[in-house]
Amino acid sequence: MSRRRRIYEGKAKILYEGPEAGTLVQFFKDDATAFNKKKHEILDGKGVLNNRISEYIFTHLNRIGIPTHFIKRMNMREQLIKQVDIIPLEVVVRNIAAGSIAKRLGLEDGEVLPRSIIEFYYKADELDDPMVSEEHITAFGWATPAEIDDIMTLAIRVNDFLSGLFLGVGIQLVDFKIELGRHWENDVMRIIVADEISPDSCRLWDAKTKKKLDKDRFRQDLDGMLDAYREVADRLGLLHENEPPRGKGPVLVKTD
Question: Which of 26, 45, 67, 74 is buried most deeply by CB count within 10 Å?
Answer without folding.
Answer: 26
